[in-house]
Design a protein that fits this description.
mainly beta; about 100 residues; five-stranded antiparallel β-sheet
């Protein structure tokens, strides 16, 4: 057994990406951010659909159609494959813990 809130580094110079489950059809990932964002000129453009939940903290996603989604604890969003997006903000004062489910 493991816990989503265990093994959180005290210092987060970079985001942490950890696979929890990985099969040919689905991947579940824990992401830990603290003030991290996607560089302005980079976009996520994935071959898989992504369902993402903010378990702790807050974040904002920017989509290439200029739509911004502000996620707080418990909020989730489904991102279709090839929907270009960026993480435009994460709370710099506390860890934001995401649970991301990638599926075909």
């Amino acid at each position: 057994m493991t816990n989503l809130f265990s093994n959180i580094p005290a210092n987060l110079p970079e985001e942490v990406f950890e696979d929890i489950i990985k099969t040919p059809d689905v991947r579940i990932e824990r992401i830990i951010s603290k003030g991290h964002t996607t560089p302005d000129n980079e976009w996520y453009d994935q071959d898989e659909n992504e369902w993402v939940l903010v378990v702790k903290g807050e974040a904002k996603l920017l989509f290439d159609d200029e739509r911004v989604v502000h996620l707080k604890e418990g909020d989730h969003v489904n991102i279709p494959a090839h929907q270009r997006h960026q993480v435009s903000w994460t709370d710099p004062n506390q860890e934001t813990i995401w649970l991301a489910v990638f599926y075909k």
